[in-house]
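the two lines:
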Amino acid sequence: MTTKNAFYAQSGGVTSVINASAAGVIETARQHKDKIGKVFAGRNGIIGALTEDLIDTDLESAEDIAALKNTPSGGFGSCRFKLKSLEDNKREYERLIEVFKAHNIGYFFYNGGGDSADTCFKVSQLSEKMGYPVQAIHVPKTVDNDLPITDNCPGFGSVAKYIAVSTLEASFDVRSMAATSTKIFVIEVMGRHAGWIAAAGALVEDHNIPVLTLFPEVEFDKDKFLAAVDAKVKEHDFCTIVVSEGCHWPDGTFLAEQGTRDSFGHAQLGGAAPVVANMIKEALGYKFHWAVADYLQRAARHLASESDVEQAYALGKAAVEKALEGKNSIMPTVVRESSSPYKWSIGEAPLSEVANVEKMMPMDFISDDGYGITDKCKEYLYPLIQGEAYPPYENGMPKYVTMKGISVEQKLEKFEL
Amino acid sequence: MTTKNAFYAQSGGVTSVINASAAGVIETARQHKDKIGKVFAGRNGIIGALTEDLIDTDLESAEDIAALKNTPSGGFGSCRFKLKSLEDNKREYERLIEVFKAHNIGYFFYNGGGDSADTCFKVSQLSEKMGYPVQAIHVPKTVDNDLPITDNCPGFGSVAKYIAVSTLEASFDVRSMAATSTKIFVIEVMGRHAGWIAAAGALVEDHNIPVLTLFPEVEFDKDKFLAAVDAKVKEHDFCTIVVSEGCHWPDGTFLAEQGTRDSFGHAQLGGAAPVVANMIKEALGYKFHWAVADYLQRAARHLASESDVEQAYALGKAAVEKALEGKNSIMPTVVRESSSPYKWSIGEAPLSEVANVEKMMPMDFISDDGYGITDKCKEYLYPLIQGEAYPPYENGMPKYVTMKGISVEQKLEKFEL
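prediction for all of em together
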């Protein structure tokens, strides 16, 4: 086996643990210097490969690479840049292979969601055809938890923990004020078309919190919802509502798109939470508060789930190990061995089966009324939020690392994106 | 000294550490059973006293009272109920004294902000006049940090830590996506008329984050602000904005009140964050994300500051000790002995000097351009966010306690509020 370099890139929306996967890739590669020379990271993701803007991770200290395990966000930068199909944009794929060739890159570790799995798959196919075979391994990452085959996706467990804990805390707050003040608390969560994150908020039911959850998987029914809210308030004096950003009306319109206009007549971009809160106020008169956690949830490394951090690291490590075993065009996965006690191992899936498949929440995870989760769902979720992997603190603030990010010398002509 | 019972009530918006003060009061009183018989807590605050709805805290286990130290929200319920002036509503004050008399209550511990300090002061005056003297001690609490004399208020340090950490984490997230995606992140924080919480967000400047802070103390100047945002983005490729809910235009209108109407023509209640974000998008075209932390920030016991938890407990404890020393109509305070290393002790202030005085942020805490904080402000803030007082966890979730809340038998006629 000759020595080849590796290329690592972060893709799409970042998470609180994607850097743990980066640490898993880089630390494991460093243990195999005879086979993997250097790990180059794409500055701002795959764009860094296309523009030949590579970061030499060898110039980052062992201490800083280890600190990536505790640091949210994308340490090398990420991007939302989907390569088009091979037919539509062969030029970009060929450029990737050219850059890989110029820098003696034989391993491609791509850390992302569905789109990047697809890109990874195509690169492995094309590189073979072009006579410069690259081993392409996809490292799963997405807070949306919508990749197939793997039991869960790194990034999700920590968001789930953050949303479950935050919803519980805010619900305690509202409960103690409800007699004379706020009776409705609405929290809006991420997750796009999948209700996984919203489901985590519904876990507060196990802590005696009256909660209604609005999933993207369930068409919004205003009258039914308002009746459910009123019943909860009449019974418990307050109600917590978890609304997914992807919650929508039967015609597909998102709740957040209310046709709201500001005083100048411009369309106002709001969230789903204020829409739901105002709807309740108008119909039932209850005083409300609402929160939109937005990036706070996916960046909340301070409350990361230990099992999530461990899996993120383990999948990065496994990607390198599998590459060294000669594997290609695969994604290491999390295999659940048992839920209680939680046991998991690393498996693998062919990228041909991962690319362009979106895993939705099973309908038997959602309760019959559409506003809660089933025991089956809870059995799935609880293991993923186990353990607290706190970052170290200094002077009251977490010690998060910033990479030096030193560029590798360019060897090719400029490339226009 | 004869044995008297005590009455404890939580007032106004709750915090992540007000229950630590409750634990300080109750645990200390339990150590002096010869002087303080029972501690009765007002169910839902002072309303519990007026309606004679008292909780017998003696029926709560030592373990549960200790667990209050780790539990956010108001364990006995709180309320926003300001007693009117003595002249306007002597009836309510007299009822309070009657209830105290009926239950042999000689100590009144009132845990709240400015309004409750005022009530506490009046109760001590009136009880004397009515021939049933009650020792009234105010225990400070407010995330707004606007009580006078005390160096800081319990509740604030933890919100400050939460906002500083969350702003840092989200800023790291945006920084790693900025090349091709979001360049503006806006986080809205609480604090009413005082910029203390917003100032905590500005601490991320020390972590190389380009940040602009919009304080209630500084009139909003749209053109100047947009120019500042543009300059930050041009230099750093992204910008974080911390906006206080109290931020307002020169005419006093809050940024959140934009005259926005929904498609039915109803006034739309939004936050200041989406207003600022849309303003930037419209003028400068930058892609944005925004978050409104709302109750998440003041309930975030999972990230409480250790110094805050310790002070909250110590002030509850000191309230009882001072009562036992015969003190009346006072508030125990935090006295800062030194900032580095942080040393503090407990002092006291007469309620006559606390009631109805609002402590604003000193103007020399705000930088000359109005968008940041000075070194003096940082010296003030850092000690308050020191240490991480994590709650215990079970099955991935924090173990927060719920009081049994068993009522004391009523002895008086019903009272209409």
